[in-house]
Design a protein that fits this description.
Layout lengths: L6 E3 L2 E3 L3 E3 L8 H9 L4 E3 L16 E4 L2 E4 L8 H13 L4 E5 L4 H14 L3 E5 L10 H4 L2 H14 L4 E4 L7 H10 L4 E4 L3 E4 L1 E2 L4 E2 L5 E5 L4 H14 L4 E4 L5 H10 L1 E6 L1 H6 L3 H15 L5 H4 L7
Parallel strand pairs: 3-4, 3-16, 4-7, 7-8, 8-9, 9-10, 10-15, 15-16
Antiparallel strand pairs: 1-2, 5-6, 6-14, 11-14, 12-13
The structure holds ligand RRO.
Ligand RRO binds next to loops.
Protein backbone atom coordinates (compact mmCIF):
# COMPACT_ATOMS: atom_id res chain seq x y z
CA UNK A 1 0.00 0.00 0.00
CA UNK A 2 1.25 3.50 -0.85
CA UNK A 3 2.01 5.64 2.21
CA UNK A 4 -0.29 8.53 3.07
CA UNK A 5 1.31 11.97 3.15
CA UNK A 6 -1.68 13.75 4.72
CA UNK A 7 -0.75 15.60 7.86
CA UNK A 8 -2.14 17.93 10.46
CA UNK A 9 -0.76 20.80 12.50
CA UNK A 10 -2.94 20.69 15.60
CA UNK A 11 -6.50 20.73 14.35
CA UNK A 12 -5.59 21.98 10.84
CA UNK A 13 -5.45 19.27 8.20
CA UNK A 14 -3.30 19.40 5.05
CA UNK A 15 -3.25 17.11 1.99
CA UNK A 16 0.55 16.97 2.28
CA UNK A 17 3.21 18.44 4.61
CA UNK A 18 4.74 21.00 2.19
CA UNK A 19 3.47 24.56 2.73
CA UNK A 20 4.56 27.72 0.93
CA UNK A 21 6.82 29.71 3.31
CA UNK A 22 6.08 33.36 3.96
CA UNK A 23 7.89 35.83 1.71
CA UNK A 24 7.97 33.93 -1.59
CA UNK A 25 5.10 34.38 -4.09
CA UNK A 26 2.85 35.25 -1.14
CA UNK A 27 1.74 38.78 -1.99
CA UNK A 28 -1.16 37.98 -4.32
CA UNK A 29 -3.92 35.38 -4.32
CA UNK A 30 -3.15 34.48 -7.95
CA UNK A 31 0.48 33.51 -7.22
CA UNK A 32 -0.58 31.47 -4.17
CA UNK A 33 -3.31 29.71 -6.19
CA UNK A 34 -0.58 28.78 -8.71
CA UNK A 35 1.57 27.37 -5.92
CA UNK A 36 -1.33 25.35 -4.51
CA UNK A 37 -2.19 23.96 -7.96
CA UNK A 38 1.48 22.94 -8.36
CA UNK A 39 1.14 20.73 -5.27
CA UNK A 40 1.65 22.70 -2.04
CA UNK A 41 -0.41 21.49 0.92
CA UNK A 42 -1.24 25.07 1.89
CA UNK A 43 0.13 28.60 1.76
CA UNK A 44 1.56 31.12 4.19
CA UNK A 45 1.17 34.70 2.95
CA UNK A 46 3.80 37.44 2.85
CA UNK A 47 3.93 39.16 6.26
CA UNK A 48 1.24 41.84 6.28
CA UNK A 49 1.16 44.98 8.44
CA UNK A 50 -1.36 47.67 9.26
CA UNK A 51 -0.21 50.08 6.53
CA UNK A 52 1.17 49.48 3.02
CA UNK A 53 4.98 49.50 2.99
CA UNK A 54 7.43 49.77 0.10
CA UNK A 55 10.38 47.98 1.65
CA UNK A 56 14.06 48.69 1.06
CA UNK A 57 15.70 49.95 -2.13
CA UNK A 58 17.48 47.52 -4.46
CA UNK A 59 19.60 45.46 -4.19
CA UNK A 60 17.33 43.51 -1.84
CA UNK A 61 18.32 39.98 -2.87
CA UNK A 62 21.65 38.21 -3.39
CA UNK A 63 21.51 34.69 -4.83
CA UNK A 64 24.49 32.35 -4.52
CA UNK A 65 25.29 28.66 -4.91
CA UNK A 66 24.26 27.63 -1.38
CA UNK A 67 21.15 29.75 -0.95
CA UNK A 68 20.03 33.35 -0.76
CA UNK A 69 20.48 36.52 1.25
CA UNK A 70 17.61 39.02 1.40
CA UNK A 71 16.65 42.28 3.00
CA UNK A 72 13.32 43.09 1.38
CA UNK A 73 12.25 45.26 4.32
CA UNK A 74 8.70 43.92 4.69
CA UNK A 75 7.16 45.27 1.48
CA UNK A 76 3.40 44.59 1.61
CA UNK A 77 0.10 46.13 0.51
CA UNK A 78 -1.34 46.53 4.04
CA UNK A 79 -4.13 44.56 5.70
CA UNK A 80 -7.10 46.50 4.29
CA UNK A 81 -6.15 45.57 0.71
CA UNK A 82 -4.91 42.12 1.62
CA UNK A 83 -8.18 40.93 3.17
CA UNK A 84 -9.52 40.66 -0.40
CA UNK A 85 -6.64 38.33 -1.37
CA UNK A 86 -7.42 36.04 1.61
CA UNK A 87 -11.07 35.93 0.54
CA UNK A 88 -10.04 34.89 -3.00
CA UNK A 89 -7.85 32.07 -1.60
CA UNK A 90 -10.69 30.82 0.58
CA UNK A 91 -12.99 30.96 -2.47
CA UNK A 92 -10.66 28.28 -3.92
CA UNK A 93 -10.69 26.29 -0.62
CA UNK A 94 -6.94 26.69 -0.15
CA UNK A 95 -5.61 26.17 3.39
CA UNK A 96 -4.36 29.67 4.16
CA UNK A 97 -2.15 30.92 6.95
CA UNK A 98 -2.02 34.70 7.18
CA UNK A 99 1.39 35.98 8.25
CA UNK A 100 1.35 39.27 10.17
CA UNK A 101 3.91 41.62 11.73
CA UNK A 102 3.83 44.59 14.06
CA UNK A 103 5.92 46.19 16.78
CA UNK A 104 3.05 46.16 19.21
CA UNK A 105 0.98 43.42 20.92
CA UNK A 106 -2.38 45.22 20.59
CA UNK A 107 -1.82 45.88 16.87
CA UNK A 108 -0.79 42.23 16.34
CA UNK A 109 -4.17 41.22 17.82
CA UNK A 110 -6.00 43.67 15.58
CA UNK A 111 -4.24 42.32 12.47
CA UNK A 112 -4.99 38.74 13.53
CA UNK A 113 -8.68 39.55 13.97
CA UNK A 114 -8.79 41.04 10.45
CA UNK A 115 -7.10 37.93 9.02
CA UNK A 116 -9.63 35.76 10.86
CA UNK A 117 -12.63 37.74 9.61
CA UNK A 118 -11.29 37.52 6.03
CA UNK A 119 -11.25 33.71 6.37
CA UNK A 120 -7.63 32.76 7.20
CA UNK A 121 -7.38 29.26 8.72
CA UNK A 122 -4.54 30.33 11.06
CA UNK A 123 -2.23 33.27 11.65
CA UNK A 124 1.55 33.06 11.66
CA UNK A 125 3.13 35.75 13.86
CA UNK A 126 6.36 37.05 12.37
CA UNK A 127 8.45 37.45 15.52
CA UNK A 128 11.66 36.89 13.62
CA UNK A 129 12.46 39.10 10.60
CA UNK A 130 16.16 39.77 11.25
CA UNK A 131 16.67 43.19 9.68
CA UNK A 132 13.83 45.67 10.26
CA UNK A 133 13.94 48.07 13.18
CA UNK A 134 11.28 47.74 15.87
CA UNK A 135 9.69 44.51 14.59
CA UNK A 136 10.65 40.84 13.99
CA UNK A 137 13.62 39.52 15.94
CA UNK A 138 14.23 42.90 17.59
CA UNK A 139 11.13 42.19 19.66
CA UNK A 140 10.73 38.44 19.12
CA UNK A 141 14.24 37.77 20.42
CA UNK A 142 13.02 38.25 24.00
CA UNK A 143 10.83 35.65 25.69
CA UNK A 144 8.76 38.22 27.61
CA UNK A 145 7.80 40.01 24.38
CA UNK A 146 6.94 36.70 22.69
CA UNK A 147 4.67 35.84 25.62
CA UNK A 148 2.92 39.22 25.60
CA UNK A 149 2.31 39.25 21.82
CA UNK A 150 1.15 35.64 21.54
CA UNK A 151 -1.16 36.05 24.55
CA UNK A 152 -2.69 39.23 23.17
CA UNK A 153 -3.41 37.51 19.83
CA UNK A 154 -4.72 34.29 21.44
CA UNK A 155 -7.09 36.33 23.65
CA UNK A 156 -8.52 37.96 20.51
CA UNK A 157 -8.94 35.21 17.89
CA UNK A 158 -10.19 31.64 17.84
CA UNK A 159 -8.18 30.42 14.82
CA UNK A 160 -4.84 28.69 15.56
CA UNK A 161 -1.89 30.98 16.29
CA UNK A 162 1.50 29.92 14.93
CA UNK A 163 4.61 31.70 16.27
CA UNK A 164 7.58 31.97 13.87
CA UNK A 165 10.84 32.02 15.80
CA UNK A 166 14.20 33.62 15.17
CA UNK A 167 17.38 31.51 15.08
CA UNK A 168 19.36 34.67 15.94
CA UNK A 169 19.37 33.93 19.65
CA UNK A 170 21.33 31.79 22.08
CA UNK A 171 18.32 29.66 23.08
CA UNK A 172 15.47 29.32 20.57
CA UNK A 173 13.59 26.82 22.75
CA UNK A 174 13.21 29.44 25.49
CA UNK A 175 11.32 31.62 22.98
CA UNK A 176 9.21 28.66 21.85
CA UNK A 177 8.34 27.76 25.46
CA UNK A 178 7.14 31.37 26.02
CA UNK A 179 4.91 31.09 22.92
CA UNK A 180 3.49 27.75 24.08
CA UNK A 181 2.73 29.11 27.57
CA UNK A 182 0.95 32.09 26.02
CA UNK A 183 -1.37 29.77 24.08
CA UNK A 184 0.26 29.31 20.64
CA UNK A 185 -1.04 26.32 18.66
CA UNK A 186 2.24 25.71 16.82
CA UNK A 187 5.85 26.86 16.57
CA UNK A 188 7.40 27.63 13.19
CA UNK A 189 11.20 27.38 13.06
CA UNK A 190 13.22 29.03 11.60
CA UNK A 191 13.21 32.47 9.98
CA UNK A 192 16.39 33.59 8.21
CA UNK A 193 19.81 33.85 9.84
CA UNK A 194 21.27 37.37 10.10
CA UNK A 195 24.12 37.65 7.60
CA UNK A 196 26.01 39.86 5.11
CA UNK A 197 27.71 39.71 1.70
CA UNK A 198 30.39 42.09 0.42
CA UNK A 199 30.92 43.14 -3.20
CA UNK A 200 34.69 43.21 -3.66
CA UNK A 201 34.31 45.22 -6.89
CA UNK A 202 32.20 47.91 -5.23
CA UNK A 203 34.01 47.56 -1.89
CA UNK A 204 30.70 47.72 -0.05
CA UNK A 205 27.98 45.43 1.27
CA UNK A 206 25.89 43.91 -1.56
CA UNK A 207 22.48 44.64 -0.01
CA UNK A 208 21.26 48.23 0.25
CA UNK A 209 20.36 47.50 3.88
CA UNK A 210 23.89 46.06 4.41
CA UNK A 211 22.65 43.14 6.55
CA UNK A 212 19.97 40.65 5.61
CA UNK A 213 18.60 37.17 6.23
CA UNK A 214 20.31 34.00 4.97
CA UNK A 215 18.13 31.13 3.69
CA UNK A 216 18.34 27.97 1.58
CA UNK A 217 20.84 25.08 1.80
CA UNK A 218 23.18 27.24 3.91
CA UNK A 219 20.81 27.07 6.90
CA UNK A 220 19.29 23.58 6.72
CA UNK A 221 21.30 22.17 9.60
CA UNK A 222 20.56 25.23 11.77
CA UNK A 223 16.84 24.71 11.14
CA UNK A 224 17.04 21.00 11.90
CA UNK A 225 18.80 21.61 15.20
CA UNK A 226 16.21 24.25 16.14
CA UNK A 227 13.27 21.94 15.34
CA UNK A 228 14.90 19.08 17.27
CA UNK A 229 15.51 21.25 20.36
CA UNK A 230 12.05 22.85 20.30
CA UNK A 231 10.22 19.56 19.90
CA UNK A 232 12.15 18.17 22.87
CA UNK A 233 10.93 20.98 25.11
CA UNK A 234 7.46 21.85 23.76
CA UNK A 235 4.38 19.71 23.35
CA UNK A 236 2.65 21.78 20.63
CA UNK A 237 3.34 20.91 16.97
CA UNK A 238 6.41 22.27 15.18
CA UNK A 239 6.56 23.38 11.52
CA UNK A 240 10.08 23.20 10.05
CA UNK A 241 11.57 25.76 7.63
CA UNK A 242 15.04 26.25 6.18
CA UNK A 243 16.78 24.70 3.19
CA UNK A 244 14.16 22.15 2.09
CA UNK A 245 14.69 21.21 -1.58
CA UNK A 246 13.97 17.47 -1.66
CA UNK A 247 11.84 14.74 -0.15
CA UNK A 248 14.81 13.65 1.92
CA UNK A 249 15.24 17.19 3.33
CA UNK A 250 11.56 17.15 4.31
CA UNK A 251 11.97 13.69 5.89
CA UNK A 252 14.92 14.98 7.96
CA UNK A 253 12.77 17.79 9.36
CA UNK A 254 9.89 15.39 10.07
CA UNK A 255 12.21 12.97 11.86
CA UNK A 256 13.58 15.92 13.88
CA UNK A 257 10.02 16.58 15.09
CA UNK A 258 8.19 18.68 12.47
CA UNK A 259 4.70 17.64 11.38
CA UNK A 260 4.83 19.94 8.35
CA UNK A 261 7.46 21.99 6.53
CA UNK A 262 7.54 25.31 4.69
CA UNK A 263 9.46 25.82 1.45
CA UNK A 264 10.61 29.27 0.30
CA UNK A 265 14.06 29.69 -1.23
CA UNK A 266 13.76 26.49 -3.29
CA UNK A 267 10.53 27.89 -4.80
CA UNK A 268 12.32 31.06 -5.86
CA UNK A 269 15.09 28.93 -7.41
CA UNK A 270 13.05 26.15 -9.07
CA UNK A 271 9.48 27.50 -9.25
CA UNK A 272 6.23 26.13 -7.76
CA UNK A 273 6.79 22.69 -9.38
CA UNK A 274 9.22 21.97 -6.52
CA UNK A 275 6.19 21.08 -4.35
CA UNK A 276 5.13 18.20 -6.59
CA UNK A 277 8.72 16.92 -6.71
CA UNK A 278 9.32 17.11 -2.95
CA UNK A 279 6.02 15.30 -2.28
CA UNK A 280 6.78 12.57 -4.84
CA UNK A 281 10.24 12.02 -3.36
CA UNK A 282 8.87 12.00 0.18
CA UNK A 283 6.24 9.40 -0.71
CA UNK A 284 8.87 7.23 -2.41
CA UNK A 285 11.21 7.55 0.56
CA UNK A 286 8.42 6.55 2.96
CA UNK A 287 7.50 3.56 0.84
CA UNK A 288 11.12 2.35 0.73
CA UNK A 289 11.57 2.88 4.46
CA UNK A 290 8.20 1.32 5.37
CA UNK A 291 6.54 4.36 6.88
CA UNK A 292 2.78 4.31 6.23
CA UNK A 293 2.02 7.83 7.48
CA UNK A 294 3.69 11.15 8.29
CA UNK A 295 2.53 10.81 11.89
CA UNK A 296 4.55 7.60 12.22
CA UNK A 297 7.71 9.43 11.12
CA UNK A 298 7.36 12.62 13.24
CA UNK A 299 10.17 12.83 15.79
CA UNK A 300 11.62 9.33 15.26
CA UNK A 301 15.14 10.81 15.54
CA UNK A 302 14.42 11.53 19.23
CA UNK A 303 14.03 7.83 19.94
CA UNK A 304 17.46 6.93 18.60
O1 LIG B 1 10.68 41.25 4.20
C1 LIG B 1 11.80 40.84 4.58
O2 LIG B 1 12.85 41.47 4.37
C2 LIG B 1 11.95 39.59 5.36
C3 LIG B 1 11.06 39.15 6.34
BR1 LIG B 1 9.47 40.02 6.67
C4 LIG B 1 11.35 38.00 7.12
O3 LIG B 1 10.62 37.57 8.02
N1 LIG B 1 12.52 37.35 6.85
C5 LIG B 1 13.36 37.76 5.91
O4 LIG B 1 14.41 37.13 5.70
N2 LIG B 1 13.06 38.86 5.15
Amino acid sequence: MRPSINTSVGKLKFRNPTLLASGILGETASSMIRVYKAGAGGVVTKSIGKQPREGYQNPTVYLFEGGMLNAMGLPNPGIEYFKGEIEKLKGEHIPTIGSIFSGDAAEFAELAALMESAGADAVELNLSCPHVEGVGSEIGGRAENVYEIVKSVCDRVSIPVWAKMTPNTSDISELAIAAERAGASAIVAINTVKAMAISTELRRPVLSNRVGGLSGQAIKYIGLRAVFEISEKCSIPVVGVGGIYSGRDAAEYIMAGACAVEIGTAVSRYGPEIFGEVNRELEEFMENEHFSSIEEMVGVAHRA
